[in-house]
Amino acid sequence: MKNRLFGESPLLRLAVCLMAGIVIGNDVEAGHWLLPLLAGAVVLTMLLWKKALLQSVAIAVCFVLLGWLLTTRQKASLRVQWPEEEVKYEAVVLSEPQEKPKTMAVDIMLVKNGQKLKGYFYKDERSRGLRIGDGLSIQSRIRENSNWHRGAFDYRRYLEIHGFTGSTFVSSWKWQKVRVSLEGLSRLERTKLYFLRLRSRLLKRLAVDESSEDQYAVVAAMALGDKSALTKELREVYAVTGASHVLALSGLHLGIIYTLLSLLIIGRRWQMVSQMLIVLCIWAFVFLVGMSTSVVRSATMLTVYALLSLGYRDKMTVNTLAFTAIVMLMVHPLSLYDVGFQMSFMAVLAILVFMPLLEGLFPREYLLSHQTVRWLWSMVAVSVSAQIGVAPLIAYYFGRFSTFFLLTNFIVIPAATLILWLSPVVLLFPSLAYLLLYIVKCLNTVLGQMAAWPGASIEALHPTVLQTVMIYVVILCITYILTIVGYRSGSPRP
């Protein structure tokens, strides 16, 4: 019997090979010989067209070499030799200032070459007043990224994943606001900056008063992808209860937005036009919220979903997910090490694999005739499937397992839907912000009470990399066994 996961999803095998090449490229720097080697492997692949097995092996080798080459090139592009002395340069602000014990942390980009830096400005009233899009003239020393580690967190790798090539501390008297030219930046960077400025203006419409800071922080994170206002205590409440995923924009949020746009845009007779319009709106939203890895993944999958829906084909499959991973990793190989990328893809992969198995526990006819049971069981199946996919990663990176995740999802998913649907209304009519913030206040209160329940979270897990991998190996083996059982019994299977 052909393996149902890999046999019917050939792109998944290629995605795994590409990931293997990225891992090799991250640890082993290749020389100039790698490109000719890849070219030779491609030629060999074409010559083996009569031998299917050998050609498949050659294609796999090509993707491993491709991942290795792309990773080596990206890491080389992030290595910049900064001058030892202070230099004068112009930059533009990319983020709202975040207050640290002695400084204000701001992301900046050099307008001359587009290099991104972590800027730490001396804390005073001027640095507190920095806003996205402000032009700056700075004189300071730029340093290489720090090699700081804490547990599983590698700060240097985090900076490289997000495109930062250095950091700088700026004294109070060595910077000033100026008008800068953005002609040195790419069109993509200028477009992203435009949408970041627009998001900053929209965020001001949501801010009502200082007494609702926690509510504003949640709305800003869910609706516009800005998590800078989230306090440590609020993040902990959402993490303990297993609700952190609603604060990070992902497939859940874009799915809700896609559904809303589908209801608003009526055009059955003009389905192609309506789907393209929805896709454009989705990508405009992606730019608006800062193009995080998880939201780009979701938008790419929704784009494929929309295109396939025009031909009435199967839309959300493991192949679709693998294709999305290949595209994203070819553009940005180091995304593989992004926690958001890993958790986003593992959650969706687990849903695609385990949902059919869990839904098969109830007869299809029964679910179709009992809509309430169908909705409840679908929620359970999605939550459990996603948790199977991300639980080992959460334990590895954050050292905990939220025991009430299932109950939490029955609360936060309807609440997130309501919040996302109300947010555009509030942006158009700011006077209604109090209603939206009241809903978030109720959500925060409920989650705060749940976080205080005994046993709400199992702490101090911290498995090693090997243990985490072995957990996934066990899950894969169990999946294979269940697939065989499902195949023989004729029940639904992935």
Question: Can you put this structure into words, describing what you see?
Answer:
With 494 residues, the chain is an alpha+beta fold. It has 18 helices and twelve strands. The strands form three sheets. Strands 1, 2, 3, 4, 5, 6, 9 and 10 form an eight-stranded mixed beta sheet that branches. The protein has a two-stranded antiparallel sheet with strand order 7-8. Strand 3 and strand 4 form a beta hairpin.
Helix run count: 18
Structural class: alpha+beta
Tell me the helix content: 55-70%
Overall shape: it is globular
Intertermini distance: 14 Å
DSSP strand content: 5-15%
State the order of secondary-structure elements, H for helix, E for strand. Answer: HHHEEEEHEEEEHEEHHHHHHHHHHEHHEH
Q: Cα-atom Rg, whole angstroms?
A: 24 Å
The average pLDDT is 85
Q: Uncertain segments of ≥5 residues (pLDDT<50)?
A: none
List descriptors.
two-stranded antiparallel ribbon; 10% strand; 494 residues; single chain; alpha+beta; 60% helix; 8-stranded mixed sheet
Topology of this protein?
Layout lengths: L9 H18 L6 H14 L4 H26 L9 E7 L4 E2 L3 E8 L5 E7 L2 H4 L6 E6 L1 E2 L5 E2 L2 E2 H7 L2 E7 L4 E3 L9 H20 L6 H12 L7 H9 L10 H14 L6 H18 L4 H17 L8 H14 L7 H21 L4 H6 L1 H28 L2 E2 L2 H24 L4 H19 L5 E2 L6 H25 L5
Parallel strand pairs: 4-9
Antiparallel strand pairs: 1-3, 1-5, 2-3, 3-4, 5-10, 6-9, 7-8, 11-12
Helix pairs in contact: 1-3, 1-12, 2-3, 6-7, 7-17, 8-17, 9-10, 9-11, 9-16, 10-11, 11-12, 13-15, 15-16, 15-18, 16-17
